[in-house]
């Protein structure tokens, strides 16, 4: 099929968000199953919460308890090695992900062909915060993730420098603003461009509806595996 007939699907995400990890892995699994052109849009969830006046679900005790159970069940169902950090509040709200997302934005700015580096780096950062209970704020942590993601060691120092530049800070801000302009109040946010219209979906539980809107089939969280369970 011609590239032009592929529907553009944008995924706005932040590695501080566990639900974004689930949404990200699903979209990466489906990018070659559905006739879509997936665009990864690293952004800053803190800016979304502020800009939309939303409050994190973790601040409501019952929601926080539910979220913990929900994420455990989802990790199994989606087959993503998600495990909450020992202190989720510290990881999410005190330490946050601003430097991490600026680093991802810097890598995206420099990556020439496709988005393999951005995909792998994002995944490594999620692994650190949402699987291995490791830091994602220090430069050493970021470069460790970059090495694991297969980025050339010789470029990492320069990418870290670039990530603190005005250019990259502004890039992350404008991507975050773009998400707000689509009506974002949290992540993951998927925007499907269908017949000249942008259809916005929030969360990692709207894939059946999304598939319906773009004229594709939802085949569960692991489309590569046969659904026949004997």
TrEMBL record:
Organism superkingdom: Eukaryota
Species the sequence originates in: Myripristis murdjan (pinecone soldierfish)
Origin organism lineage: Eukaryota, Metazoa, Chordata, Craniata, Vertebrata
Protein name, UniProt field: Glutathione S-transferase kappa
Enzyme class: transferase
Reactions accelerated catalytically: RX + glutathione = an S-substituted glutathione + a halide anion + H(+)
Gene Ontology MF annotations: glutathione peroxidase activity; glutathione transferase activity
EC number, UniProt record: 2.5.1.18
Pfam families (alphabetical): DSBA
Cross-referenced SUPFAM superfamilies: Thioredoxin-like
Gene name, Swiss-Prot/TrEMBL: GSTK1
Catalytic site positions: 17 (nucleophile)
A biological-process GO annotation: glutathione metabolic process
